[in-house]
Amino acid sequence: MRRAVADELLSSPGLLALDLSGVNRIDGDGIDALTSAATQAGESDIGLCLVGAHKGPSAAALAAADLSELVEIVPTLDDI
């Protein structure tokens, strides 16, 4: 995932939305990858949005890692 996101960010989109709606749990490696993506996006002035990670264990992991402060988290793509 880390490489795919980095490649997408290299194309300089205005916004990159990652669909995490099918993700039930985010482990430490996932948090590290998302933190890296958020940092890279911020340095490149690209918005990063996590879709479908607004509740449950995924939301708790993102909040514990303070990622909710770095990226927008929305329930669906229509909410972007």
From TrEMBL:
Lineage: superkingdom: Bacteria
SUPFAM superfamilies, A to Z: SpoIIaa-like
Domain called STAS: residue spans: 1-80
Pfam families referenced in this protein's UniProt entry, alphabetically: STAS
Signal peptide: none
Protein name: Transcriptional regulator
Species annotation: Mycobacterium celatum
